[in-house]
Amino acid sequence: MGRAVTVATCALNQWALDFQGNLDRIVRSIGIAKSKGARYRLGPELEICGYGCSDHYYESDTLLHSFQVLEKLLESPVTQDIICDVGMPVLHRNVRYNCRVIFLNKKILLIRPKIALANAGNYRELRWFTPWSKARHVEEYFLPRIIQEVTGQETVPFGDAVLATKDTCLGAEMCEELWTPNSPHIEMGLDGVEIFTNSSGSHHVLRKAHTRVDLVNSATAKNGGIYIFANQKGCDGDRLYYDGCAMISMNGETVAQGSQFSLDDVEVLVATLDLEDVRSYRAEISSRNLAASKVTPYPRVKVNFALSCPDDVAVPTCMPIQWRYHSPEEEISLGPACWLWDYLRRSKRAGFLLPLSGGIDSSATACIVYSMCHQVCLAVKNGNADVLADVRRIVNDETYIPEVPQELCRRVFTTCYMASENSSQDTCNRAKLLAEQIGSYHINLNIDVAVKAVVGIFSMVTGRTPRFSVYGGTSRESLALQNVQARIRMVLAYLFAQLTLWVRGMPGGLLVLGSANVDESLRGYLTKYDCSSADINPIGGISKTDLKNFIQYCIENFQLTALRSIMSAPPTAELEPLVDGQVAQTDEADMGMTYAELSIYGKLRKIGKAGPYSMFCKLINMWKEICTPREVAAKVKYFFRMYSVNRHKMTTLTPSYHAENYSPDDNRFDLRPFLYNTTWSWQFRCIDKQVNALLSLCGFISTVLTVG
């Protein structure tokens, strides 16, 4: 009968504008799919040019080179006898669309434009593309001459249609369309489409994977069918890490799961499924069948090709599996580590330099680099030739084989403890011990000479010498002296990043890593142009709470016992003088709020979309057991004052791995002014009015109870 269909999906580590590399990875994925018996292959969204081209989509070059790659794919023997579904931008009647181009044996079957564009959070698709708004409508698309010469076609169907093969019917969705309330797969399923495909450019966010998996499974739970999901993976050239998770689902259950984090540039998932299982599943859902009898049909593109074989009764089919999710700590260990690896190899640098203070944030950053080295060693052990070639180029040794992460760390990771007269011996010892355990090349230096020189220039010019507050100076003087130390550390970090390998007789330079967490960025608890100013920051989108849990994970899984003392020590900037040789300055005291409170403020401000008044209204209920309304009001006012005073720092924030949906990243995720009226006079008056009303109500109730 022809009932067992074999289909393939993939996760590809594509790179914006890397047309040759993208072509090579696409061809490899098709070859793997064919070798495993697949008759249909789905790839990620915009895989030909890379998803993250941004304003390069405006350039005619991007369209031209995409069609040149498509020409190579059409001509390749690898693409014969398999339906190939690839993504690229297409200009139709002078309008740019985000499209799927589906072809078979040098013939384009359909160009399907995206209907619902992603335009929230990190996504700006409406800036570059126009959604296709003509439901179930197909037009003629005139092919460029270079494609006509290969296909022999002058025009091909362009629009909202489905493919009808000899044995089944396929319909395409694209990324955001799965997330919309009225997804195309609903109507397509009612119209008899049995296989749904989704090509995505979906990035990693902590604790997001289950949402994506639930959406894919639910797409076929009520309506039946096979759902094939492809996604990009890796660092495409910016702050996002696309986390794969290619999957195939049938009738509401997962039958094939791809990895969420890996160093494999090409990952192909293949499944053989029985179409009769879809048909029998649908047959007993009477409500679905009643709706299907009234649905408006989709235009069908007939394809003289089958996804199954005539005699396939004995062909084994895939069975449902249980999805294996990573814990948040595992996600932090793997996601930013893979992102760092992509950034390192694609920037063609020789490693990283990290100012290691002995605190939680910089230690967590060091652990992520260690995890990266662990992943590299594991990939090489598993036979990944691409990773081996990259690591040999990075360390400039064609015979090198990484076997243990500590040894690789020694080659690619430099840590530097920058002491001052305000630094304690405890943090120095903690940094040194952690460096020894992860294997980094560690440097100890003292910045006091440089600090005195800078302050000396100021004193020579002005005739005044600033003092710390503990020595009788004003808060302005004390803050300025703290900032000088922090900024000198940044200057020295870049100097050592450029020349450390030169001193060691090794070629190349190092990328400087920052280590400010998402909560400190939100509060602005950092010095502008200090060590938070780096090339990239793997923890800039991660909360302090999650970082502490990640540190505990590293103690247990990497046996980094040096982290125990780091976990137990109170977070401190160590920029003010010691008292009796001990640290007197702590982060939470300096900030005037706890890290736990900061996380709540951040989520309410960004995810809850709360201004000062709305945040107050929410928190008087959340904190009613621990705070009075007046105390809540004071906390909210203080947060918004500090947030708005320091918002300008976000404009120069180091590019950070995006991991939280309350990130204050000013680049494109959290678009807000950086010059505020920091009095918030109207908003704060509304809060005060509400506090007084609550106090009056409480007083009235108390009086009634007393009289009663």
TrEMBL record:
SUPFAM superfamilies: Adenine nucleotide alpha hydrolases-like, Carbon-nitrogen hydrolase. Its EC number is 6.3.5.1. Residues 5-275 form the CN hydrolase domain. InterPro entries: C-N_Hydrolase, C-N_Hydrolase_sf, Gln-dep_NAD_synthase, NAD/GMP_synthase, NAD_synthase, Rossmann-like_a/b/a_fold. Keywords: ATP-binding, Ligase, NAD, Nucleotide-binding. It comes from the Eukaryota. One of its GO terms (molecular function) is glutaminase activity. It is an enzyme of class 6 (ligase). Pathway: Cofactor biosynthesis; NAD(+) biosynthesis; NAD(+) from deamido-NAD(+) (L-Gln route): step 1/1. GO terms for cellular component: cytosol. One of its GO terms (biological process) is 'de novo' NAD+ biosynthetic process from L-tryptophan. Signal peptide: none annotated. The keyword Nucleotide-binding applies. Pfam families: CN_hydrolase, NAD_synthase. The keyword Nucleotide-binding applies. PANTHER family: GLUTAMINE-DEPENDENT NAD(+) SYNTHETASE (PTHR23090:SF9), NH 3 /GLUTAMINE-DEPENDENT NAD + SYNTHETASE (PTHR23090). Homohexamer. In the C-terminal section; belongs to the NAD synthetase family. This is Glutamine-dependent NAD(+) synthetase. It comes from Xiphorhynchus elegans (elegant woodcreeper).
